[in-house]
TrEMBL record:
<feature type="domain" description="FAD/NAD(P)-binding">
    <location>
        <begin position="4"/>
        <end position="270"/>
    </location>
</feature>
<dbReference type="InterPro" id="IPR023753">
    <property type="entry name" value="FAD/NAD-binding_dom"/>
</dbReference>
<dbReference type="GO" id="GO:0016491">
    <property type="term" value="F:oxidoreductase activity"/>
</dbReference>
<keyword id="KW-0560">Oxidoreductase</keyword>
<protein>
    <submittedName>
        <fullName>Thioredoxin reductase</fullName>
    </submittedName>
</protein>
<dbReference type="InterPro" id="IPR050097">
    <property type="entry name" value="Ferredoxin-NADP_redctase_2"/>
</dbReference>
<dbReference type="InterPro" id="IPR036188">
    <property type="entry name" value="FAD/NAD-bd_sf"/>
</dbReference>
<keyword id="KW-0285">Flavoprotein</keyword>
<dbReference type="Pfam" id="PF07992">
    <property type="entry name" value="Pyr_redox_2"/>
</dbReference>
Amino acid sequence: MERYDIAIVGSGPAGLSAAINAKIRNKKIILFGNRDLSNKLLKAPKVNNYLGFFDVTGKQLSERFKEHIEKMDIGVIEERINSIYAMGEYFALMVNEKTYEAKTVILATGIEYTKPIKGEEEFLGRGVGYCATCDAPLYKNKIVTIIGYNKDAEEEANYVSELASKLYYVPVYEGVYDLNSTIQVVKNRPMEIQGDTRVNKVILQNREIETDGVFVLKDSISPSQLVPGLSMTEGHIEVDRLMKTNIKGCFAAGDCIGKPYQYIKAAGEGQIAALSAVSYLDSQK
């Protein structure tokens, strides 16, 4: 399997800055995110505090970012990372049925992630999962509940329904649902996931569902859920001045490490994270 020097998770200013600086230093990188780059940036009506770019809209600044990475031949992989595991000499980044490997990781996930449901983190790995296509075989002929936050979750629900004896789909969004006829749609707000040693129940606002497993399919998840063992403080990743986390070879930058939530601050931290990752890689030779 191909192993990258640096995997960067996030395509906002921090992630892009990290990618550019790592590429300049001839490191083999892979960048995960959105080809539209930062949705948060696109919504900004006016940006006046980014040095050298005065009185521009967020969309205009985003277009300059995009032009920069294209000139440097940096592509964006539009695949959602479900989990990242430290494997000793490298990190395994899980994307549904695929796995990527990288010697170092830079987290630039921002802070636009959904807060966990009560019991979600407690039962993670004990009936709660974030990748239905990865873990579906574990629930063959069992009852499964999928809490879907976007349309993409429907495809995973259809896959799981072919294996499970019963599948409940709880959409946390409005729309027309493209689901197999065997799937029972439950339009009710999820409140809590309960169990003893493993999950056995999902509590909704107006009913309960007995279930053997729950997949929570979100746009993005908390860094502490993404990377087991990652130290967090008040919802932000703990780092030192070199953007090092408590996990060897793992760095972080941008809004995910704390305030102020500013584009220019994020870009600077992305550069530091990249330089620190490069220094770490060079020290391992």
